[in-house]
Amino acid sequence: MDLQQRGCGHRFCDSDWCLSRQPRIERTLGDPSEARHLSPRRHHTGAAVLIHCLTLKFKESASDIEIEEMRAALAALPSHFDFPIRTRYGRDLGERATNADYAVVTEFENPDDFDTYLKHPAHLAVPRDHVDTMHSVQFLFDS
Question: Domain segments of the chain: what residues?
């Protein structure tokens, strides 16, 4: 299958929903001149959100106090933003030795909010000194 155009070029336009403010060009299998423009920001119907998942592995030296300081900073994050943000977080249940120690799942209405979040001083101030490794993934969820 040869896709002539895949979205508008925004970094999150790799799915059926285009989250950019620009009109999206529908994927086509044939002549690119037959591509149709779809309405911009279609996801604002409430059909899709950007999910940011982060897993953390703590250093052996991480104390319960340091982990609690991180939890408190995460709990305070939504109050620093003028856009909706939903954050859930918690320690691993310990069911498997290979799991991460902690996870954070945050929902955003659009990529612009996510980009603002990543650069915001409150996000950057979340304590990370006791974190050994972090892995993240972002994806779209159609509700």
Answer: 1-45, 48-142
The structure tokens listed for 13 are 């336009």
Candidates 23, 21, 20, 24; CA nearest to 10 is 20
Consecutive 10-residue averages of pLDDT for the chain (143 residues): 40 43 39 39 58 96 95 92 90 91 94 93 92 94 78
Neighbours of 73 (CB within 10 A): 15
- For 48-142, CATH gives 3.30.70.100
Write the single-letter amino acid at 120.
H
Strands, sheet with 131-142, edge to edge from the N-terminal-most edge strand: 86-91, 102-108, 48-58, 131-142
Alpha helix ranges (H) inside 43-104: 64-76
